[in-house]
Design a protein that fits this description.
The protein is mainly α and 140 residues long. It has five helices and no strands.
């Protein structure tokens, strides 16, 4: 039998709570429920990313579509590896699925911002602020 790749394992870990059939209840602070809610957050972020990707993909010519597809595949590999690395210390613990889901959510939200703001930005457009610029403004 083939071994699952690291990204496939991450997806299985992140989606395991959904398989239990429980809905997120943010008033329940058990680790199991926090894992379920973190996974729900990731699923919502992933749905937004998929919508943004499809919209951008459809607005490009064939050459740009191929480039975007390659970039997205590379980004997914990066995201999965980055989240495996950042959550490695908790591997085997009950908090691990939550940490993986939180990482996936954060990086997915950042990628959605990149896809939705980058191609349409004009100099001086405040809606095109990068995630780093947003954080800088929040600190002021």
């Amino acid at each position: 039998m083939r071994r699952l790749s690291l990204p496939a394992c991450l997806v299985l870990l992140a989606t395991a709570p959904a398989a239990w059939g429980q809905e997120c209840d943010r008033s329940d602070d058990s680790q199991q429920m926090m894992n379920i809610c973190a996974n729900a957050d990731y699923e919502a972020a992933d749905a937004k990313l998929n919508a943004a990707y499809k919209e951008l993909f459809g607005s490009n010519d064939e050459k740009a579509q191929k480039l975007l597809q390659a970039a997205q595949r590379a980004w997914i590999a990066f995201r999965d590896a980055e989240c495996a690395y950042s959550a490695a210390d908790s591997e085997g613990g009950s908090i691990h699925p939550m940490e993986v889901s939180q990482c996936l959510t954060e990086l997915t939200n950042e990628r959605t911002k990149q896809l939705t703001s980058g191609p349409n930005c004009k100099d001086g457009d405040p809606s095109c602020a990068s995630p780093d610029e947003d954080e800088d403004q929040d600190m002021q």
